[in-house]
UniProtKB/TrEMBL annotation:
GO biological process terms on file: lipid translocation; peptidoglycan biosynthetic process; regulation of cell shape
Listed Pfam families: MurJ
Organism, scientific name: bioreactor metagenome
Cellular component annotations (GO), alphabetically ordered: plasma membrane
Annotated membrane topology: Multi-pass membrane protein
Alphabetic keyword roster: Cell membrane, Cell shape, Membrane, Peptidoglycan synthesis, Transmembrane, Transmembrane helix
Parts forming coiled coils: none
Protein name according to UniProt: Uncharacterized protein
Compartment(s) where it occurs, according to its Swiss-Prot or TrEMBL record: Cell membrane
Transmembrane segments: 5-22, 28-46, 58-80, 92-116
């Protein structure tokens, strides 16, 4: 409860500050920052309460996912800009550019998480393999 209160207060303070500089984007950024703080506080509280719970693997997987997401975002952003420039700014052109950029970004993310051997991907692959073999 204390962690949630701290996170909420930080969110309000950051929202008031960042909305002046960044507009609505500041609200989203403030919420993201306060959520990250809340996650850290909850991790610390859980570790104090129960000891080791596999947080090393959780942090490792989270960092791999974060890195993949950042690269996906960069690729998607530049793909959209390039496709918009090539295809044009008509409504249909924007729809095609956006759809294509999202597809490219999702493909990049999928490739990265497979290459980085994220545990959950390996679990899904093994379960799919069992389903396919059972048919």
């Amino acid at each position: 409860m204390i962690n949630g209160a701290i996170s909420m207060i930080l969110n309000i303070i950051l929202s008031l500050i960042l909305v002046k500089f960044m507009g609505h984007n500041g609200l989203a950024f403030a919420t993201s920052l306060s959520s990250i703080l809340c996650i850290i506080l909850l991790f610390v509280s859980l570790k104090k309460k129960i000891g080791y719970f596999g947080q090393d693997n959780i942090i490792k997987t989270s960092l791999k996912s974060l890195g993949s997401a950042i690269l996906m975002g960069i690729v998607t952003f530049y793909s959209y800009n390039q496709l918009s420039y090539i295809i044009g700014s008509s409504t249909v052109g924007q729809i095609i550019s956006l759809g294509s950029a999202v597809f490219i970004g999702a493909l990049v993310y999928l490739i990265l998480i497979v290459l980085l051997k994220i545990d959950e991907v390996e679990i899904i692959k093994s379960k799919l393999k069992k389903v396919i073999e059972s048919k």
